[in-house]
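Summary of Year 1 activities. Much of the first year was spent building the evaluation harness for sequence design. The harness presents a backbone, in tokenized form, and records the residue chosen at every position. We chose the following record to illustrate the format because it has been used consistently in internal testing since the harness was completed.
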């Protein structure tokens, strides 16, 4: 679960991230990100939007729980002071946690908030295998 300091709670905060931030959409979710205004900010924050279009109350809460768990695991890799809003789309209702995690990772990489693992371990001195 996300600590209280890592949660977006006020509608003004959600509105600011969604209007001023960058956006990356995937099949099951859309991630809005606003970089830190103050580089000395201590932690990143995240909020979630799961509308009635996703499903009934039970389905919406299940999707929100899964997203909270996935974001909590990745929040440490996001630059400090950044704000995220994760908006679930209707296909998220039938998605597994692995599918949601893959979409979340792809969106965060597109927003340049997660390092690309393929590039992190690559040796840039050569372009291919030695012959």
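For this record, the design step produced the sequence shown next.
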């Amino acid at each position: 679960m996300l600590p209280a300091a890592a949660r977006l709670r006020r509608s003004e905060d959600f509105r600011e991230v969604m209007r001023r931030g960058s956006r990356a959409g995937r099949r099951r979710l859309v991630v809005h990100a606003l970089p830190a205004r103050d580089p000395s900010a201590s932690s990143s924050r995240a909020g979630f939007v799961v509308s009635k279009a996703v499903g009934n109350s039970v389905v919406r809460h299940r999707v929100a729980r899964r997203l909270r768990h996935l974001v909590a695991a990745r929040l440490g890799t996001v630059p400090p002071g950044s704000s995220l809003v994760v908006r679930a789309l209707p296909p998220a209702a039938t998605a597994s946690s692995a599918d949601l995690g893959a979409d979340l990772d792809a969106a965060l990489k597109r927003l340049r908030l997660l390092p690309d693992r393929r590039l992190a371990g690559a040796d840039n001195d050569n372009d291919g295998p030695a012959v």
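The longest helix spans residues 57-74. Quantitative recovery figures across the full test set are reported in Table 2.
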